[in-house]
Amino acid sequence: MSAPGIAGLHLVRFGTAADQGYFLDAFAGTYDQIVVNANMIAHMPAAMAGFLAVRAKKPFFIDPQTIAFQHEVDHLLSTSKKSAGEIKRSWKRIIQCYGNPIAQALNPESPRPILPDDFKDDKECRAFCGRVTDFQNDELSNEFKTGEDAAYVQFLAQEAGVKELVPPSLIVAPYFFLNASFFDQWLDVNLRCLEFTRAALQKQGNKKPLAAQLVISQEVLLTDKLREKLIAAYRNSKAKPDVFLLWIDSFTEQELSVGELASYVALVEGLASDGRAVVNLYGGFFSVAAARFGVLKKKLMGVCHGLEYGESKPVVPISGGVPVAKYYVPAIHARLSSRVAARVIRQLGGFKTVEAFRQRVCDCAACRSVIKKDPLKEFSEFTETKISTFWRSGKRVSMEFPTARTSDNCTQHYMWRRYREYTEATTLKEVCKSLRDGFDRLKTPVGLEFVGHFAIWPEALQGAD
Ligand SMILES: [Zn+2]
Question: Residue 18 Cα, ligand 1 centroid: separation in angstroms?
Answer without folding.
Answer: 20
